[in-house]
Design goal:
This protein is mostly helical. The chain has a single domain, classed as MetI-like fold, CATH 1.10.3720.10. It contains eleven helices and no strands. Helix 1 runs antiparallel to helix 2. The longest helix is centred in the first third of the chain and has 40 residues. The protein is flat. The chain starts with a helix and ends with a helix.
Length: 240
Amino acid sequence: MTMDLEFAARIFGRLIDGLWMTIFIVIASMILGNLLAIPVALARVSERWWLRYPAAAYILFIRGTPLIVQMFMIYYGLGQFPAVRQSFLWPLLRDALVCAILALSLNTAGYSGEVLRGAITAVPKGLKEAGTALGMTRAKVMFLVTLPLAFRQSLPTFANESVLLLKASAIVFTITIRDIMGEAVIIRSQTFRTLEPLISAALLYLVLTFLIVQGFSLLERRLNVHRRRATVTELLAGMR
């Protein structure tokens, strides 16, 4: 069966509806997941074992189990507990969109938390000691010195994690959400054509991936402008 370009152009408009849903899910999960990654990373580097061990166990569970299992546990599993069904959270937890964002956010927090932990431990000890010498408390050193530097060093890895989050969001159609992949599956079931909707969906994911990579590249250049200035200064010094 050959690909029908005219048919592909017609269904592309239908996939745009799923595109906005995908963008919303990815942005919401990215923001919430990376915010949750901060306490996870801080717990991992804590000297208190009752913070460090649960955080390590959480990261192990997130990285050691498939995302689709985690999503099904939240969407299908939580409703089996009477305490959950009778709680004030049940109107939210029975909504597929909320469960998808929650699952993706918790998954992102596990991966990004470990990335941030590595970046925190890589911050030079002298910078922390300098902050302490200026009279900063340990909390101020962490939030004003260590975390900003760790975040800046982790930007390339966060870009990769965001791309992975985008691709991971393609499974949310399994819990009835009509994202890009969900719309493509519906079109395939209605028309019995597979190639056109899947290639159209792949092109949309490719465009979103390009935008994420370019966005993080721009952010990295803006945050590391001092490095470019240092490079220009070194170049000028070498020409003398």
